[in-house]
Amino acid sequence: MVRKLLIAVAVIFAATTATEAQFVVKVRPAFVVHSKPKPPSVQHIWIEPEWVWRNGNYVMINGYWATPKVGFVYHQGYWRKQRSGYVWVAGCWRRR
Question: What is the pLDDT of residues 42-77, one digit of tens each?
Fold first, then answer.
């Protein structure tokens, strides 16, 4: 039983690792400039557009206004250069 579970985990890990390799691009996609809409309140912060991997390409998702979470700060996403090209590191909320 344990052996079957370990094999299943190894297969899932291998499939995940193979999928992540497809997320590397040689040239970063062009950034489309959008104007920010007016903030709903002074408490809101702007979350910059993000890139997601869909159908073999990076697709830009529009930015939006968000209410900050208490005790957290938002770190914007960015393109990280690797030897084989670029990969998008998604933005996230982190504890202060």
Answer: 999 999 999 999 998 899 999 999 999 899 999 999
Q: Is the pTM of this model over 0.70?
A: no
| DSSP label of 18 | H
Angle made by CA atoms 10, 94, 20, in degrees to the nearest 5: 30
Residue 55 near residue 63, CB atoms below 8 Å: no
The 10 Å Cβ neighbour count of residue 38 is 6
Q: How far apart are CA 74 and CA 69, in angstroms?
A: 9
Rounded to the nearest 5°, which phi and psi values hold at 86?
-125, 150
Q: Counting beta carbons within 10 angstroms of the beta carbon of residue 88, is it exposed (0 to 12), middle (13 to 18) or buried (19 or more)?
A: buried
Asked if 61 contacts 49 with a C-beta cutoff of 8 angstroms, the reply is yes
Q: Nearest CA to 46 among 77, 87, 79, 70? A: 77
